[in-house]
Amino acid sequence: MTATAPGTGEPVDRVDRAWAWRFNLAWVGVMVGLFGPIQVLLPNQAEALAPEAKEYVLGLVTALGAACALVANPLWGALSDRTTSRHGRRLPWIVLGVPVGALGLGVLAVAPSVPVMVLGWCLVQTALGAPWAALTAAVPDQVPTAQRGTVAGYLGFAQMAGVFLAIGLATLFPGPAGYLACALAMTAVVAPFVLLRRDRAVPGHGLGPWRWRTFLHSFWIDPRRYPDFGWAWLTRFLLNLSNALVLVYLLYFLRDQLGRGNAEFDLLLLGLANACGTVAAVVWAGVWSDRVGRRKAFVTASGVVMGLAALLIATTPTLPVLYLAALVLGLGFGVYTSVDFALITEVLPASAARGKDLGVLNIASALPQVLAPAIAAPVVTRVGGYPVLFAVAGALGLLGALLVRRIVAVP
Question: How far apart (Å, rounded) are the C-alpha atoms in residues 329 and 120?
């Protein structure tokens, strides 16, 4: 159980290392379940099932999965808000989502056709939205405000570790075995957090009686009534869209604009440079934002750094500059990832609806991944090519950094 301040629902007891380790391991597991398939296994399976249309098949599968995730995350968060189980509000949804997600990975392992592949991936994305929502809401539920930057920093590191573990498993165990390896690893590393059984069991959710109309209407959070929440959503959307626009056609940029013969290898090295920058900044920024008691300055600085890195690529499109920009983008995104998460937990409208509200904020992170290809394609082919694309990305990053200052409730 977690003690809370009277009248606010804010936790007052600092979380210990045992909780933090189990919490971060759980995030590693969720990332393994999501990113092992999307990075390696799904592309290879699409090529095996439809070699002449692999790009179309992969795009279809990932787009439909992303659509499921966009709906599922806030939905599971809202349902967890209303949960009054003696085991807590969030843990039941982790216990439900992880096995069903593992089942979806099993469906993918035996998928004989593209429709079954779509079914399996949509099941994974929908089911794992439950532990994603529950783990996200566990931070404002159990971590006091002054400790959230540190927890978010280690969370960002855990998410990256999960991605690398997922890629490693998918590479070591190709084909169906890879899906099963990801399912087993995900279940194993989430289990310690569930077995810790630390969650807030509440006798009543305080959200009123169940009515479909009221439930659905609750997903609209009026930015005029909650302006800090609205600005947090918009700035998160702009900064994630900026980052997505830089990355979406990077392989094609290397191949077509820079004439690189082994663009895939260059992309791998750029990814490593970006990851090094992120790892170097993600924990440090979260810890320091707690120590100085400020969030906005860190998020603003990260947006400026990411925006300038994109503009650097636009004005000097060479491979050495691209490596430098990848490292700088990683540094900026590392700072942003940790401190922005701490910031958004402090602008939520009501403690009783944290899961749903964080799910709505997560749309601002997921939606740019869907929109980026649709925006980038006409810009590259009709408007002005890659320099304009990277300039747009830079401008969006700088705009997001500027608008962070409009949030008034967080220093």
Answer: 34
CA dihedral 321, 324, 330, 333 (to 10 degrees): -60
- Closest residue by Cα to residue 313 from 394, 249, 396, 379: 394
pTM for this predicted structure: 0.88
Residues 164 and 182: their CA atoms lie apart, in Å, by: 12
Query: Count of alpha carbons within 13 Å of 81, Cβ hemisphere only?
Result: 28
Angle (nearest 5°) at CA 399 between 395 and 402: 140
Record the tokens describing residue 104, joined without a space.
């979806």
> Is 366 within 8 Å of 325 (Cβ atoms)?
no
d(CA 10, CA 190): 25
Q: Which has the closest alpha carbon to 60: 42, 74, 73? A: 42
Q: Phi/psi at 400 (nearest 5 deg)?
A: -60, -40
Please compute, for residue 138, the number of CA atoms within 13 A of its CA located in the half-sphere on the CB side.
Answer: 29
Reduced to 3 states (helix: H, G, I; strand: E, B; else coil), residue 270 is helix
pLDDT digits 0-9 by tens, 177-233: 999 999 999 999 999 999 988 786 565 566 777 788 888 888 999 999 999 999 999
CA distance 129 to 133: 6
Which residue matches tokens 């949804």? 93
